[in-house]
């Protein structure tokens, strides 16, 4: 879809995620990129076409959130068939938060609830796309195949043994709606489950797990390629037993999801994760946002329990950390403010890395201007801001 005012034009002096130099882009008559090249190679496009000078600001695609549990008071595990219009509202809301696409997360609940939510999301995905609105890429099942000892806020009564029979029961008729699943690999000594899920086109992420390094590496050999909310709900790094996270950090082709709210993981450990894993080659940001995303702090229902949200952090009544209500792109700002990343790398962690982790194309020829974000760093305050380019 072409964007009015952003067709047949050049964008110059733009910085891109992952590149230290300035670039120029040409947008064709359809509003999509037809050329990307360094500014040193810039030759004005013939025909007196308009030029937008970004003066060193960054340009990126919008964010992709691979772990988000709800928004605007709606929790994805609680979806009803009548909630499709509320899903549309969430898509519009996330678009205005700079998110192009997301993977709704269904946390551990009973199988009938999972099926109802999957059916609702599947029906919504068959509707015409919301414009403007973030796209639903499919569902993330975070559970119910989790280690009891690392279940965190997941209700233990709905955890299930990890085997093919239970996986097929949970997926039911909705395997085509599921894009990603989090599981504890040590629960499947047979090694049958991960290859089966990959044969269905479902990406496998390891999490809520007590896996040792050898168990994690076996899972990666079988096809797992991600880790869910690194550091949380898994053994700590240890110099004699690196565990699941240590195995993931040094494994090429494995991406760790990270929550950059300063509560789930302290800034120095996030910096360690980024440096050790190759930054955008091994980490992507997630919000892990809960249903109160977009609502003020307060006490809200969460399955049959309640969570209290303070300063964007959600906890159960016993203090168990259960998620955030901070938008995905706030994590980008945090990484820059904490001095962990330069701006381009931080932007890429929320825009490029999650796309690569799902095998989706990043910023490149063919991408439409309707997806562009323009990022500006105020030199006087070091405050990072963004706006939709179109």
Structure description:
24% of the residues lie in helices and 27% in strands. By secondary structure, it is an alpha/beta fold. The chain folds into two domains: 9-56 and 363-388, Urease, subunit C, domain 1; 61-357, Metal-dependent hydrolases (TIM Barrel, Alpha-Beta Barrel). The strands form five sheets. Strands 6, 9, 10, 11, 12, 13, 14, 15 and 16 form a nine-stranded parallel β-sheet that branches. Helix 5 (213-222) packs across helix 6 and helix 8 packs antiparallel against helix 9 (343-351). The N and C termini lie close together (11 Å).
List keywords for this structure.
27% strand, TIM Barrel, 390 residues, 2 domains, nine-stranded parallel beta sheet, globular, alpha/beta
Radius of gyration equals: 21 Å
Number of individual domains = 2
Q: Using the 3D structure, state the CATH architecture of the largest domain.
A: Alpha-Beta Barrel
Main sheet makeup:
9 strands, parallel
Number of strands: 22
CATH homologous superfamily annotation of the largest domain? Metal-dependent hydrolases
List the total number of helices: 10
Please bin the fraction of helical residues: 10-25%
Tell me the distance between the termini: 11 Å
Low-confidence stretches: none
The residue-averaged pLDDT reads 94
**Which class of the largest domain in CATH terms?**
Alpha Beta
Q: Give the class from helix and strand content and strand pairing.
A: alpha/beta
Bulk shape: globular
CATH topology name of the largest domain: TIM Barrel
% residues in beta strands: 25-35%
Write the layout of secondary structure elements.
Elements: E1 9-15, E2 22-27, E3 33-38, E4 51-53, E5 58-61, E6 63-68, E7 70-71, E8 74-75, H1 84-96, E9 99-107, H2 111-125, E10 135-136, E11 139-142, H3 164-171, E12 178-183, H4 193-199, E13 203-206, H5 213-222, E14 226-227, H6 243-249, E15 255-259, H7 267-277, E16 283-286, E17 298-302, E18 305-310, E19 313-316, E20 321-324, H8 328-337, H9 343-351, H10 353-357, E21 372-378, E22 383-388
Parallel strand pairs: 1-4, 6-9, 9-10, 9-11, 11-12, 12-13, 13-14, 14-15, 15-16
Antiparallel strand pairs: 1-2, 2-3, 5-21, 7-8, 17-18, 18-19, 19-20, 21-22
Helix pairs in contact: 5-6, 8-9
């Amino acid at each position: 879809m072409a964007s009015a005012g952003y067709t047949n034009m050049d964008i110059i002096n733009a910085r891109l995620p992952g590149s230290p130099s300035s670039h120029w882009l040409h947008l064709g008559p359809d509003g999509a990129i037809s050329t990307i090249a360094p500014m040193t190679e810039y030759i004005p496009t013939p025909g007196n076409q308009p030029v937008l000078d970004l003066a060193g600001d960054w340009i990126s695609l919008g964010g992709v959130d691979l772990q988000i549990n709800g928004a605007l008071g709606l929790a994805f595990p609680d979806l009803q068939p009548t909630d499709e219009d509320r899903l549309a509202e969430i898509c519009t809301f996330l678009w205005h938060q700079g998110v192009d696409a997301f993977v709704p997360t269904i946390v551990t609940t009973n199988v009938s609830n999972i099926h109802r939510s999957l059916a609702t999301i599947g029906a919504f995905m068959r509707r015409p796309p919301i414009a403007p609105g973030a796209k639903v890429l499919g569902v993330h099942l975070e559970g119910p195949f989790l280690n009891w000892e690392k279940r965190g806020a997941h209700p233990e009564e709905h955890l299930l043994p990890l085997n093919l029979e239970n996986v097929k029961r949970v997926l039911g008729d909705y395997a085509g709606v599921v894009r990603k699943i989090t599981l504890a690999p040590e629960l499947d000594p047979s090694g049958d489950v991960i290859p089966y899920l990959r044969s269905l086109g479902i990406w496998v992420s390891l999490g809520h797990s007590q896996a040792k390094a050898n168990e994690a590496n076996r899972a990666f050999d079988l096809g797992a390629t991600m880790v869910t909310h690194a550091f949380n709900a898994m053994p700590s790094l240890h110099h004699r037993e690196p565990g699941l996270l240590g195995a993931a950090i040094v494994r090429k082709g494995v991406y760790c999801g990270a929550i950059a709210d300063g509560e789930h993981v302290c800034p120095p450990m996030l910096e360690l994760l980024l440096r050790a894993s190759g930054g955008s080659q091994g980490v992507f940001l997630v919000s892990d946002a809960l249903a109160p995303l977009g609502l003020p702090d307060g006490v809200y229902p969460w399955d049959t329990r309640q969570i209290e949200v303070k300063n964007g952090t959600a906890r159960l009544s016993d203090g168990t950390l259960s998620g955030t209500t901070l938008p995905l792109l706030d994590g980008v700002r945090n990484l820059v403010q904490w001095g962990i990343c330069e701006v381009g790398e931080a932007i890429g962690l929320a825009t490029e890395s999650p796309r690569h982790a799902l095998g989706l194309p990043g910023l490149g020829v063919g991408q439409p201007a309707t997806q562009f974000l323009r990022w500006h760093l105020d030199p006087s305050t070091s405050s990072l801001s963004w706006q939709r380019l179109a």
